[in-house]
Each structure stands twice: as structure tokens, then as C-alpha cells.
Amino acid sequence: MRLTIDDRVVEADRSITILEVARRADIHIPTLCYHPALEPYGACRLCSVEIEKRGRKKIVSACNYLAEDGLVVRTRSPAVIDLRKMILELLLARCPKEGRILELARDYGIEAPRFEPDNERCILCGLCTRVCAELVGVSAINTINRGVERGVDAPFGDLSEDCIACGSCALVCPTSAITEMRNVFPVTTEMSREIEDEYLDGVRDEDLGVLFHLIAGRTSVAGQDGGVATSIIKAGLEKGVLDAAVVVVKRRGSNPEAVLVDEATGAMQARGTKYSRVSVISQLCRALREGKKRIAVVGTPCQIRSVRRLQKGYLDREFPGSDIVLIGLFCFESFDYADLRSRINVILGIDLEDADRIQISKGRYEVSIGEETYSCSVKDLQDVVREGCQMCGDFVSRLADISIGSVGSPDGYSTVIVRSRRGKVLLDGIEFEGVQVNRDEVAKLVSMKRRRAERSFARVLEGLG
Ligand SMILES: Cc1cc2nc3c(=O)[nH]c(=O)nc-3n(C[C@H](O)[C@H](O)[C@H](O)COP(=O)(O)OP(=O)(O)OC[C@H]3O[C@@H](n4cnc5c(N)ncnc54)[C@H](O)[C@@H]3O)c2cc1C
Ligand code: SF4
Ligand code: SF4
């Protein structure tokens, strides 16, 4: 197929858009809402071009108009330039402080818009919502309302329960809109560094993150591994170092859920790993609103990232004097509980609701019911892994005050990474039997998870200038 773009004859395969043909031929067409890995959206119209077919001319969006044999395309005709100027003038009036818009407007000779300036950040390009839905898979944000009220928000404007703080939306957002939002928590690499500098005290280790100590410990609590997580919460509550803790319980007939406890018995009832992603933010906010000051939060790395982001941007300001300590768990991936339950029923013929204990160890998913143990390979469960986990590159909860897992320790022990003085205070409050950690085992999982996330992120990054 042959078409002419700006007087150049270019060849193209069928089913690709004018924009893609132009890009392959190094012909620049400006865009704000286009990303090669996402479905075309045609929202910003900045990629408008003039096409001529059988002597008739019309303006179309290059990002969603398919190339045709014999088509004549002009990317900078007077009509196209006028239209782009109008679009940019409107965008500049909407978002007068956004660098990318200012830059594009200047390229088209616009210094100031003729229209009443607004003070918005979001240009409604939909890149953030689409990347979150199509590439991350969690749909934590959506476009809301219509007309002048149109915007981007988490469901009901609440703090997002689904955001995994992967940062993809912030990478694709052409303005600062998404990073200004308070109810989703994009954490980019730079933001992660800032958080480490602000909240953690140890020395930076490329594999394990900022740390003071790396130890393996076993306590008197019969927890998932060495019971360290429960022991530090229990001791913190008993000794008055903590006012409350957000932990996760699994009640028969329901999904795992976060609860607020302020007594050691509550912490003990929440022992054990629930291999699901559970949002801890609403229980943390409830504790703060109830006037609790010293609060421990246990969470997977995605939850720890989300809480840190909220803490830095909002909680520290709104709840001065609050002292939040984050206990991060190691995590390679998690499962959708309902899907997992059905899958396990098919593979192992048991109901997960009857499980006395669930453990993932050395690539096997093991369920104990009474005296019996049933197991299958974790590989057989890949289709019920939660969406988004493939975008998560943090195995060891790098932003927590103290991180706890099992990899690297003998059976029955927890691997513990102490990252801040707050974390150290918690660990100093308990008694445990310590042994040496196999650091290489932990580093191996860190690098496997990082590589998987890098592969997933490559699709997000390929679309960036
Ligand atoms: C989804 C998931 C995946 C994990 N994957 C790995 C892994 O691949 N490798 C590894 O070494 N370790 C992994 N862990 C951590 C490991 O299973 C243990 O939780 C950790 O070693 C702590 O053991 P413990 O005996 O000290 O914990 P315990 O003393 O039993 O205490 C566990 C604490 O974690 C809380 N908790 C349980 N489930 C959740 C949850 N879903 N979200 C938030 N809090 C929760 C409990 O309420 C409790 O307070 C994973 C944990 C989770 C939640
Ligand atoms: S940080 Fe990730 S999960 Fe959260 S809204 Fe942005 S893209 Fe979605
Ligand atoms: S891999 Fe673990 S920490 Fe990462 S998004 Fe999934 S559940 Fe959260």
C-alpha cells in the first residue's frame, strides 16, 4: 500500500494508522493522548491532519484513521495548523501552568490564550486511565462526569482501594495532574528515592533497599514463618509503644480484609499470610480519625508504597503528631481469592475455606486441612494471579520501616530487614532466636521480580518521547 504524506511517497502495511505510518517515516505529528501500546482514543485532536481522497479534502485524527492506498495526507496544511492552534489555545487556557502545554503552544506561536484562563492540571487525554486499565490491569482511576465537569478520579472520589502505586499513570501523564491527586498513589523511581531519604535511616543496598540489619528470627509466636510480624505488633501494643495496628484477617465466607486492632489478642487472631492484595488505607485513616497516634500497618509492598505516598502527600500534614510505622511483607505475587478458591477446588478437590494453613514454599502452593496436606505447583495458578502484580518490581517492601519474609531463612524463621529507627524500636521490643540469613536467596527473588516488572514497564516506556 502506498500513500503520500507531505509530498513524500511512503509504503505501509494494511491496518495501521496514518500516525503510525508517519512515525515510521520519521514525519512528526504532535500528539498528547496517543500511546503505541494503548487503544487509540482520539481525545486531544492535536494529531489532526488533512487527507485528500478522490479530490475531496477533510480533517481527521491521524491516531485513529487507518492508512489507505493512494491517500494524500498533509500534516501541516494551513487548515491543520489553524486547528492545532485553536486546540492549543483552549488547552493553554485550561492548564496555563503546564510545561508540556506551554512548550507546544509556543511551538505554534501562541504566547497567551484569548480565553479566560482556568487553573486545571488535567487535559483529559485519558492516558492515565487507559494505562491503568489496559496495561496495569487494575482500573484504579476512571474518567468521571461529562462536559465541563469531566475529570479523572478514583471510584466515588474515595481513596483508591485498587491502586498498587506502580507509577505507570505518572509516567504517561503529559502534565502534573496525576501526581497532584490525593486519592491515587503513583510512586515513580524518583519519588521512591525521596521517600527513602525522608523516612528511612539505613544504608542503601542495591538489592535489598535501605537497611540497618538483615537477620533471621524465630519467636515464641506460631506465625506464618518465625512469627516476627505478630510478635512485634503484640509487644508494641502490650508495652504501649503502639496505640493500634492495621492487620489482615480471613473470616469464613469472606475475602481477606484489613482490620484495626488495639489489643494483643486481635494481633494474634490475624496471624498467618493471606496470599491476597488487601487495601489497608481505609483502616489506617479510621485509626487516625479516631485519634490514634502510634499506628503500625502491615502490608504487601504495593500497600506500603500506597501508604507512604499518602503519608508524604497528605497524612503527615492532616494528622500532625501521628507516628505511622510500616511493617512490609515480602511479596512476589498475590491471588484473587475467589478465583483462587475455584481454581484450587478444580485442581486439588478441596475448599480453601476449610484450610487450616496455607503456605507457598519453593514453588509449591500447600494447603493443610487437619492432618492432610494438599499441594500444587504455583505455576498452575498463574491465571488467577492478581492483575497489576506483573508491574510491581518490589519484592522486599523497600519503603517499609521493617520488612519481613521467609525467603533466605530456614523453615520456621522469618527474614527481617530493619530499615529505620522506628523499625528498630519495634524489633528491639521482642525476643527472638536469631540465625544467619542467606542474602543471595533474597537477592535472587529481588532480581527476578525486578526483571519481570522491567519487561512489563517496557511497554509503558516505549510510548514516551
Ligand atoms: C500476598 C503475599 C505474598 C507473599 N509472598 C512471599 C514470598 O514470595 N516470599 C517470602 O519470603 N514471603 C512472602 N510473603 C510473606 C510471608 O508469607 C510472611 O507473611 C512473612 O514471612 C511474615 O511471617 P511471620 O511469621 O513473621 O508473620 P505472622 O506473625 O504470621 O504475621 C503476619 C502478619 O501479616 C498480616 N498479613 C497477612 N496477610 C496479609 C496481607 N495479604 N496483606 C497485609 N497484611 C497481611 C497478618 O495480619 C499478620 O499481622 C508474602 C506475603 C503475602 C501477604
Ligand atoms: S499508580 Fe498504577 S495502579 Fe495506581 S492509578 Fe496509577 S497506574 Fe493505576
Ligand atoms: S506483587 Fe505483591 S506487592 Fe506487588 S502488586 Fe502484587 S500483591 Fe502487591
Descriptive overview:
By secondary structure, this protein is an alpha+beta fold. It has three domains: 2-76, Ubiquitin-like (UB roll) (Roll); 127-186, Alpha-Beta Plaits, CATH 3.30.70; 207-334 and 386-459, Aspartate Aminotransferase, domain 2 (3-Layer(aba) Sandwich). 32% of the residues lie in helices and 20% in strands. The protein has an eight-stranded mixed sheet with strand order 12-11-13-14-18-19-10-20, with helices on both faces. A hairpin with an 8-residue loop joins strand 18 and strand 19 (414-418). The longest helix is centred in the last third of the chain and has 23 residues, at 439-461. One iron/sulfur cluster (SF4) binds next to helix 4 and helix 5.
Main features:
about 475 residues, alpha+beta, Ubiquitin-like (UB roll), Alpha-Beta Plaits, Aspartate Aminotransferase, domain 2, 8-stranded mixed sheet, 5-stranded mixed sheet, 20 strands, binds flavin-adenine dinucleotide, binds iron/sulfur cluster
What topology emerges from the helices and strands here?
Blueprint: E1 2-5, E2 8-11, H1 18-24, E3 48-53, E4 56-61, E5 72-74, H2 78-94, H3 99-107, H4 127-136, E6 142-144, E7 151-153, H5 168-172, H6 177-180, H7 189-199, E8 203-205, E9 209-211, E10 213-218, H8 228-238, E11 244-249, E12 257-261, H9 264-269, H10 281-289, E13 294-299, H11 301-318, E14 323-329, H12 337-348, E15 357-361, E16 364-369, E17 372-377, E18 402-405, E19 414-418, H13 421-428, E20 433-435, H14 439-461
Parallel strand pairs: 1-5, 11-13, 13-14, 14-18
Antiparallel strand pairs: 1-2, 3-4, 3-5, 6-7, 8-9, 10-19, 10-20, 11-12, 15-16, 16-17, 18-19
Helix pairs in contact: 2-3
The structure holds flavin-adenine dinucleotide and iron/sulfur cluster (2 copies).
